Fold each of these.
Amino acid sequence: MVVRVLLTEDDGDLRLAVSTSLRGVGLAVDTAADLTDADLAISVNAYDCAVFDRMLPAGDALPYVGHRRRQGWGVPVLFLTARDTPADILAGLGVGDDYLVKPFEMAELVGRVLSLCRRSPAPSAPAVLRCGDLELDAGRHEVRRAGILLTVTRTEFAVLELLLTRHPEPVPRRDLIRHGWDDLVNPASNVLEVLIRQLRRKLHEPPMIQTVRGVGYRLIPAS
């Protein structure tokens, strides 16, 4: 299962340094420079943790996260900010789950993010997803077709999981790329097409992954 983090930070150099460090410990990282980008990312992706700089071009991230919380968004949040008064820290912890003051040690940030990822709420999707004779067990990280256990990579598992979750609707290329990799992958890259070819081969006949021109891919039950 891909563990995914959203990093919202308007300082480009710091955004690059933090995202590189988080990817270095195996996390998938989506980045945003402002609340508008973060809002779009949250609307299309599921996250295990989110890191927000408080003072962003659009304003303080604290009210934004508070609004999301009132809507039922339960993703653990770490605020990363230069605002270091006791009142600021208490306000941040009243909305978020952790608060780290700049400047900070990168190793400490990585450790705190990993800890929050372990606290992430369990996904609402069923533990076992099915389409026809295809079955994906998220708990055991197993994929079976007609009862036969298949060998898939972590990224193949993630892409197949999203296809099953959205079934029978088509899933856009961008969503599949961001779910299987992260925003480091160029949307124009052919990595998804290569992976789909591998998955089609591993799933055997009759074919189940259908190309939807101009959109992406969807699963269809074997006829």
Amino acid sequence: MSVPIPAEDPRYIPNRAVVDPSAITDNVRALKSALDEQTALMAVVKADGYGHGMLATARAALEGGATWLGAAHPAGALALSHAGLDVPILTWMYEPRTAAALLPDLVAAGIDVSVGSMEMLHLVIDASRSVERRARVHLKIDTGMGRNGVLPSQAAPVVQAIREEDFVQLVAAWTHLTDADVPSDPATDQQVDVFDSTVAALTEEFGTIPLQHLANSAALLSRPDLHRDLVRPGIAMYGYPPVETDLPLRPAMTVTSRLALVKEVPAGTTVGYGRLHTAASTTRLGLVPMGYADGLHRAASGKVSVLVRTAEGDRVVPQVGRISMDQIVLDLGPDSVAKAGDEVILFGDARIGHESTPAEDGPGPDAAGSDGPAATTAYDWARAAVTIPYEVLTSINARVPREVRP
């Protein structure tokens, strides 16, 4: 006889990913300010809103001025539609089995569908016929990414097939840029040239394609010439611009925990698997019940610092030793007054803690003009783990309960 294992009760898990929807709303407003009035903004909320929660993120983005939503997988797009978010939604990642199960519902719901091959087009046509509704199609052109998308030389037959089919309508052409986060890289201009020449040839042969969209977060911020009809910010919307910008973007996720144990140890004490760290002198160590099973990157071991909130103020201290599955160790310093139960901010906004309420927040210790330390960011973890903020954010998994601020 099997005995079901109950799910962990989030009330008794000390770790939290605190999501601040107002940050997403403000970030989208800031991004919108960089656009011409005629350019629409699609909020990309794939991967459960980059780990922030898809529906909360979508609503916050719409409040900030987004007028489109983008979700990679059809199930996500349907969830957005079923939630009553009455704006155009685009989805682009499906294979035959998923298409057979979900594309009819997508088309019936009026969700836009990307097509990147003749085979994908036929899946959409079959779905459209089954529900007797015309599908809105975005033609994905592979201009150098080598992933989804029709090659330029194969685009014309796909568009011709669309034009000949009553149950599909071509509403957009789009592509994805490989190196827009490196503005000096000529690859972006090369991709744009391929895209523009392909669209021009298609237009000459088959007529105007109503919409064009190329710009991700990086191109939105660094290449206004590529804004076209629609931009598709992802990571910038969550407060982590991939290129330098003067826009006031702030992190929307703050990951917190609490000290489980504090102890004084003598010089020579080693810490963690492999004894990577040895205390050079007497110090106080703090144990945090969060590790790589929660999404903290093991590759960042010993190369990142975090903020500890104590009765005497905030202090940024180093993580030492190997990051374990369920825990990390901090070197609090010999004079630390930190104690078990004190809050630890792994990354995010030091003004937000999972035990605080909006009325308590106020300016906070890291507000502009204050002398308190700022919290570590997802950028810091990314540098330490030799990865990118996208992966840091989406790695914080379901074992860490989400708390959405009101």
Amino acid sequence: MTNKKYFSLILILGSLTALGPFSIDMYLPGFPAIAKDLDTTVGKVALSLSSFFIGISAGQLLYGPLLDRFGRKRPLYAGLSIYILASAGCIFCTSIDMLIALRFIQAIGSCAAGVASIAMVRDLFPVKDNAKVFALLMLVLGVSPMIAPTVGGYITVSFGWHMVFLILMAIGIFNLVASWLWLPDSYKPDTTMSLKPKPIIAGFMTVLKVPQFYTYAFTGAMAFAGLFAYIAGSPLLFMDIFEVKEETYGWIFALLSIGLIGSSQINTMLLKRFKSEQLIFAALMAQVLTVIFFLIGSIYGWFGLEATIFLLFIFLCCLGIASPNSSALTLAPFTKNAGTASALMGAVQMGLGALASVCVGIFDVRSAIPMVAIMTATSITAFTILNVGRKRIPKI
């Protein structure tokens, strides 16, 4: 594979992977405006974020078998089409319940892009290069939290929150066209695979029983759940508690994203000297220590805006190293059923992320403590799963 083709392939896969995060991040600065227009509260608007996470989790399980049965591209086209139509519907929402429902459907569509891109990494690249490719995808992926909330803040102030969903619809159209024109067929459809519920569930159970899968899938998912707690809690934290403007919130979100992106690229260099198993252990240990200190300080009121941003930055740096390595180790044992494995991994990740975001919304209090407490609980749980589960992985 030439360098030019390698670069363009990573770029397209990164664009597909970024569709979900763009859909999450771009409308965050508009929470107060949406609440005002739809005559509801910011906490209720946050449920549209939770419904998106739930939709992605459910959609992962739907698209996994479809990607293995029909190949990567046909389910991808269907999902992107659903995403485009749901985004159009969000533009004309007249109630919060309607927005919550359409966001669920929008997520069902967007997750096809995420599942397909992850499965295609396993299709197109050697196992030994998977962690590097995932790190490169995170670099492209990282553009979304840097650009999306910042642009979303300015768009909301200048044109209203409806325009955000018009732009998301346009991004969906771009991904559909780019996938059709430039994305290669990477997998021959498995016509022997049944789409009946019983064999599909059996396929998921076969994957789930692999020790390496359940150890690193749940480790990565629990670690990543802390990110969803941060995303759900950040509008309240910065725009309500610290009273920053929508545009400023976007810039803070972008600044914090640099930690996630930068550390994922440092991870690529670290892989030349260390194994993925070593890196994920060190990253999670640092993450646990950071959030415990963050929680104690939040309880006693030690931290202002600057200190809060710094600690969140460190948290995201740890996650930027843990995430690509956990993804690579989760999928490493699989070849033929990589689509099912990637879908199940994504479903676990998004399902736990949705639960974390809902938990943040339940505590409708003007405090950072619920968000930080959930980040602490998920990080400690991830570290525990890693240390218990890796003892059950057979030595090669």
Amino acid sequence: MTDQILTLKEVAIYLKLTDKTAYRLASEGKLPGFKVGGSWRFKREDLDAWIEVQKLNKPKASSRAE
């Protein structure tokens, strides 16, 4: 099975976050997840795509010469 579904706890471990932070980000719609019977679930491929977008949106350090 290529579509791996993760629990909130597994996502927290995967992203190296606390459970509370992962829950907050999911609740705020900042992590790509969905609820099943009141519990958060996440597709690993959605998280990987989200990570790539976050890398692209990362603020770049100023490189001005003084």
